[in-house]
Amino acid sequence: MKLIKVAAGVLNQTPLDWDANQRHIAGAIAAARAEDVTLLCLPELCICGYGCEDAFHSPGLQEQSIAVLQELAPLTTGMIVSVGLPLLVGGGLFNTACLLVDGKIAGFVGKQNLAGEGLHYEPRWFKRWPNDVASTVEIGGVDYPIGDLLFEVGGVCIGFEVCEDAWVASRPGADLALQGVDILLNPSASHFAFGKHEVRRRFVLEGSRAFSVSYIYSNLVGNEAGRAIYDGDAMIASGGNMLARGSRFSFADFALTTAVIDVDHTRMNRARTGSFEPRISQGSSRRVEVDFNFRPSEPQLHAIFPAAWEQSSTLKEEEFARAEALALFDYLRKSFSRGFIVSLSGGADSAAVTVLCALAVELGVSELGLSAFCEKLGHISGLASAGSDQRELVRRLLTTVYQATQNSSETTRSAAQVTAQAVGAEHYEFDVEEIVQAYQTRVADVLQRPLTWETDDIALQNIQARVRAPGVWMLANVKGALLLATSNRSEAAVGYATMDGDTCGGLSPIAGIDKNFLRQWLRWMQVQGPLGVGPLAALKAVNDQQPTAELRPQAAEQTDEGDLMPYHILDVIERLGIRDKLTPVEIFRSLRPRFPDVSPRQLGAWVERFARLWCRNQWKRERYAPSFHLDDENLDPKTWCRFPILSGGYEREIAELRQYLKEQHPEG
After folding, report:
1. Looking at the record's lineage, which domain of life comes first (predicted)?
2. Which has the least CB within 10 A, 87, 106, 355, 537?
3. Is 374 a catalytic residue?
4. Annotated binding-site positions
5. Catalytic residue among 41, 163, 357, 374
6. Is 44 a catalytic residue?
7. Integer CA distances (angstroms), 428 to 296, 357, 395, in order
8. Is residue 302 part of a domain?
9. Which pTM was predicted?
10. Structure confidence by residue, pLDDT tens digits, 97-146
């Protein structure tokens, strides 16, 4: 048996934060050494940060990355460690993984498949490294190998699949297996999306089985650059068996997942495979030989016990709670904000944002402990004086404000108060009716006519939402806190939001999630809640209501679904039209068997309404505050779903829908 103790390290990095990034990498290396780890795989581009955007094209970024690499190399004496950085070679910039062996640079592997869809714009900055090509790069007067390399370190062959390389059909691992690779390292920066962990688990397991190797997968963790959330997935598999999995959504700066692998075992598995035909060559320029003496490791029993919450039947609800909580915490500390401000209306959206802020505190303290949690928020003075009182800590970090007009109800006022009290927030009430009336009077005087609901409905609704913005912005400025917008994705799709009203804020944490799921999540929070946290029964006051903006007089009995359509139908239309790119007629035909109890005339009207509102409101989506990416149905035009601000508005497509309804459903 040739036993080697290996580790997948996850890191919470920040673009261009050289000192912190280096500190986290050094900490992971030191922790691995303390656990007698010989081989450590760290995430993609971990030196500079994955989300550097166009700063990747700065010569200074290249210089700093190389400087940090040279400072880290001596820390790896007696170890093998992979770190990621961008490297300029032959006039092109490449996303590379560097293998450090026994305190020295052994060489660099260039990423062969660049992620260029959705959140990812790698082809904007990097060139793909061509298959079966090796070269050299000069650093500090020394030439180092770079390319599609295989490292033979102390007789053990180590290769790379860098993130996207493992997601494509023609994986580099297949070619490396023919050359006798023993261990595949996958340093990744793979953003979180619902259900994505299962995809990663499958390709790690299948890669280890099909290639007869040990496979080490490491990922970033936390809110690295503002929008993308990383879950810190870490996995080690060997010969088709999962040996170790790390916990996801950690609040720590770094974490290790370790296992002992048997190189001889995977070699013999490959030798027994009848279809395996080794590619034997001499003197390949792609094979880099490095002297290294492996320390003997003891056999280790491996038992995979995923976190209990990951086995829950409500996994999506758990993932949403933990991803949002971690992202909010990281955004708070990395933006150096001194707390959160939420305009708490008593409705579902603002209640969800409020609860998520409280969860950021509860889950963070649960993992780190109160002292370490406060230390990570060291820029906020006085937190440590909260002592062991977690509710007091929430109160210092979270402020909510209920802002009433004459159209506000006692129901929402009470729901806001009860929710704030339940989570421990500092809660205020503003009466903004006088400000609303002042604006109405001023505009009426200018127009020389009264403003009425019959002639000025939208304007009268919007002014109520807009006058709520200056007060909470001022409160946020005074406190040095982060104002959170409360609009959701369903509202963004149809523009059912007041610009500079409920969209105001520096961050829009739920703009990536649909209203239907958000209501489902709030009910889950009321009766169950995250494992280890429990339910929040006070949310009954929110969940018992029909969603309403409360911008028309109460006698109008305004509801969101009355203004739009039922949210569960709106969300299906959105997915069909925006995610799946179907035409209005195709959307209608897909809806009919799903909603047989709704008349064709009504379904057609809702499809038409959605199409018109979608086209009309792209300018609003362009102006939303940054939001978190949660799934592949994101509407953020800056990172995911681009659409023209000015367009033909689907006029011909809507005409086709009307004609189809007339011909196929004349009865209505």
Report:
1. Bacteria
2. 537
3. no
4. 190, 196, 462, 486, 491, 620
5. 163
6. yes
7. 63, 17, 12
8. no
9. 0.95
10. 999 999 999 999 999 999 998 889 999 999 999 988 999 999 999 999 99
